[in-house]
Specification:
Layout (H helix, E strand, L loop, with lengths): L8 H23 L13 H31 L7 H26 L1 H19 L8 H28 L6 H45 L1 H16 L4 H48 L6 H6 L1
Helix pairs in contact: 2-4, 2-5, 2-6, 2-8, 3-4, 3-5, 4-5, 4-8, 5-6, 6-7, 6-8, 7-8
């Protein structure tokens, strides 16, 4: 998908076939008496809200990691050797989210915990929409930890809410439905997010390059001055032009990548607002059953 895009038959034909097969799978599973993936287990309003929050939060984590990795590589030029230290915070944040969910789920219910998790995602996404080129590694690490805390909290609470919204004796099959949908959507969002970043960056680089050389007379004069400076330093005219255009293209690509990353996190911020609305809907549904109550039954 990355080298071809949606317009290529190598992409839209397999994608169309996959969607048709997925639709056929849903129809068949809903019509048989003993389905392999029983979608009917996730039909109550509470189960639907829990599954929606868990899956969407997990997909936003993928989007955030794609955007941050792209920004670190293309914009901030942070070496890839630092990635383990950045992503290492994910383990800690998910652990904290699990402890928070286990401690407060029976006390406050799913809705307030969803709001806390969604606010963490929204705040981090909003901060990342104004990412600067010289952002430090510590700032990126903090934003990723905050984002993953919200995702981990929503994911854990969402799975528990979905499970408690259905029959407890069908818990493994209910989780199978949620994980099946999560993995299916995961395989779609993964290439789409990377394709979006690459294509959007390429388009913005071309637009900014044309505007810089054809419209912006100040930039054009600066390029000419830089070429003349390199010629005066002993470089040939052809070599001087190559050096200046290489530096200019690198700067234009870095700016375009930064804008594409901003747009990706704007999408993440909008999705976090959708999570907040679902969280409020979950509160209107009531506190619902608790873990202690279900364990006794």
């Amino acid at each position: 998908m990355l080298p071809y895009g949606f317009s290529s038959p190598f992409v839209f034909v397999p994608a169309g076939v996959s969607l048709c097969l997925f639709a056929c799978l849903i129809v068949v599973e809903l019509s048989v008496s003993h389905p392999l993936v029983d979608f009917r287990l996730v039909t109550s309003r509470r189960s639907i809200c829990g599954a929606f929050v868990a899956i969407l939060s997990n997909l936003l984590m993928l989007v955030a990691m794609s955007g941050m990795g792209f920004a670190m590589k293309t914009v901030s030029k942070i070496p890839s050797t630092t990635l383990p230290s950045v992503y290492g915070g994910l383990v800690i944040s998910v652990g904290l989210a699990a402890i928070l969910a286990a401690s407060f789920f029976d006390r406050v219910g799913a809705g307030p915990l969803f709001i806390v998790g969604s606010l963490c995602i929204a705040l981090s996404s909003y901060r990342l929409t104004s990412l600067e080129p010289g952002v430090s590694l510590d700032q990126l690490r903090f934003q990723l930890v905050l984002f993953s805390c919200g995702v981990g909290l929503n994911f854990v609470v969402g799975l528990v809410t979905c499970a408690l919204g259905g029959p407890l004796n069908q818990l493994p099959r209910t989780m199978t439905v949620v994980q099946f949908l999560r993995v299916f959507l995961y395989t779609i969002v993964t290439p789409v997010s990377q394709w979006y970043l690459n294509v959007h960056t390429a388009a913005l680089t071309a637009i900014n390059g044309w505007a810089a050389t054809k419209v912006n007379t100040i930039t054009s004069a600066s390029v000419t001055s830089a070429i003349q400076h390199d010629i005066a330093s002993g470089e040939s005219e052809q070599r001087a032009r190559q050096i200046v255009m290489y530096l200019l293209s690198g700067e234009l690509q870095s700016r375009a990548a930064l804008i594409a990353t901003h747009h990706l996190f704007v999408i993440s911020f909008i999705c976090s607002l959708c999570l907040l609305m679902i969280s409020c809907l979950t509160i209107l549904l009531g506190k619902g059953p608790t873990l202690a109550h279900r364990s006794r039954t």
